[in-house]
Amino acid sequence: MAQLEFNDAHIDDLVWQAIAHSPCSKDFESYLALFMKPRHDAEACQQIERLLHAQADEQATPCFPQAIDALSQLAVSGDSNAQFYLGKCHSFGYGVPADYDQAFKQYTLAGLQGDLRAWCNIAGAYYSGIGLEHSYEKAMEYYQKAYAIAHDSLVVRSISRMHINGYGVEKDAAKGIAIMMQEIELGDYDVLALLGNMQMSGDGIPKNEQEGLRNIRLAAEGGDDYAQYLLAYSYEYGRGLEEDCSLAVHWYKKSAEQHFAAAQECLGTLYLRGEGVAKNGAEGMRLLKIAACNGSASAAYKIGLTFLNGIDAIPNAAEASRWFQFAADRGNMSAVLELANLYEAGNGVVEDQAKANQLFLKAAKDGDRWAQFSVGYRYWVGKHIEKDLHQAFKWFSIAALQGSSRAQVAMGDFYAGGLVCTKDEARSLAWFRRAADLNDYLGMERLGYAYLVGRGTEIDYPEAAAWFAKSADLGSATASYYIGEMLRRGLGMASNPGRASEWMLSAAEQDHAAAQYTLARMYADGNGLAVNREEAIKWMTKSAEQGDEDAKEWLEEQGLAQQQA
Q1: Rounded to whole angstroms, how far apart are CA atoms 32 and 209?
Q2: What is the pLDDT of residues 203-226, one digit of tens each?
Q3: Which of 176, 326, 389, 554: disulfide with 300, CB 3.0–4.6 Å?
Q4: How many Å apart are CA 541 and CA 536, to the nearest integer?
């Protein structure tokens, strides 16, 4: 049996009537989350987007409690649908503080009247341990209550997986599959899609990608929205199939037309990129907004990026900040980081360094390695926060162990200088190498310098030159400078001032002060270059403007100190 349809129209309309003119976007988000197929989804999405820009939204009085009052009156009269939805509101905190005792009471009343969704929600609470004490045995008991009412696909999927995994019952994969096959033979495409996905991933059953894909395709062709999404995803990412974005778009469209939120988001992304379909920013944004309003934080984040970077939209940092905030409020840490950057720069929002620090720290505590590095860096240099090398070392350590190459470079610097840790040049070298192995140009640059001067290792000029060359290829001005120095001085290679000047010029043009000074001296002294006083003064002035004391002294000796900016 496929997933049952319930006659919830009167409940849907009752809730909508209560919130239709609400000044709170949260009311409309709760409405969309409450119903599987909300009747007023388009209007709700429009209201959410409108209120996203309303300054007074946070202080506005919500209307959802009025919906709760109406539901309560109907539930008291014995309406099982009202009892189920009232239980759901109490369970998830829609319009009322979350209270699972009340939720359990209402679910029980609805379940006793034959609403299997109520038993499923109680089973889900026992399964997850959210609202009720975790118990697979109790979860299975309530799923069985629902199964006794009807073999709804949601119930079948849950019971079969518990048998396959041995949750609450003796593990028996054959029995779990048999339960699924019984429904599949009756035409339940939703269960067929689940079986196919399990076969593709080897989740509790032997992995068989081809058989899994066959079952997913059969379910998709049968009109199952979940299967259509899975098939589209397989085409987009080459999951058991040759990548084909045009076919991915075809199946995403079919799934999205049935209001499958994940498909709407994926399809919207492909429209923005112009992959598998003609590029259409307006359609891409429309689909992403629908997905975001239905609770997708990642879709809201993508909308924010679109406005921030001006991808098929006029660049609008203020609009980007609103969508990033929307996504951040729903737990998207990438959006938290983007918000932190906006508050730090005052881009689209009023500059607020305290807010930026708070957001960086929030993402760092959540485990984001870039945020951890950012917090460490801010403590290291005292950037809008009191300088604290111990805190810097702590956050660099955490980020470095999670694979942040830039944090690994920082760890190398700390051990090289003995900053709040015992000086250890060997450990410093090891950290630089880890960063270099991750293709970090600073790690390569530091590793090259270690071999150049013998820090933590023997002096090895060829090795130094090799790492400097790799770093310079990735844009390091400092690496270019050191290659120039090695050529100029004849370290590990024949002295060649002419070639050295080319490397110095490359670094000098990237505003490397030491390279600008050296290049100026080469022009002044005719070392590898024809004497050119004008060029010498130009580069020496640039170096002095960056604070190079040797450059300032040279200009003073030449009576040119007044040319410095």
Answers
A1: 35
A2: 888 999 999 999 999 999 999 999
A3: 326
A4: 8
Non-local CB neighbours of 242 within 8 Å, separated by 6+ positions: none
Using DSSP's 3-state secondary structure scheme, residue 28 falls into: helix
Give the containing element (helix H, strand E) for 244: none
Q: Which residue has the tokens 């492909």?
A: 270
Q: Give the position of tokens 């999205």.
A: 256
Dist CA 398 CA 387 (whole Å):
18
Residue 223 three-state SS: coil
Per-residue pLDDT of 250-289, as tens digits, reads: 999 999 999 899 999 999 999 999 999 999 999 999 999 9
| Phi and psi angles of residue 422, each rounded to the nearest 5 degrees, phi first | -65, 130
The helix (run of H) or strand (run of E) holding residue 288 is: helix 281-293
Give the sign of the dihedral formed by CA 48, CA 52, CA 53, CA 56.
positive
CA dihedral 132, 137, 138, 144 (to 10 degrees): 140
Contact between residue 304 and residue 320 where contact means Cβ atoms under 8 Å apart: yes
First to last CA, the chain: 81
Model pLDDT for residues 153-187, shown as the tens digit of each residue: 889 999 999 999 999 999 999 999 999 999 999 99
CB neighbour list of residue 447: distance below 8 Å, 6 or more residues apart = 429, 432, 433, 436, 467
DSSP characters over 475-493: T-HHHHHHHHHHHHHTSSS
| Single pTM value for the model | 0.79
Distance from the Cα of residue 175 to its chain's centroid: 39
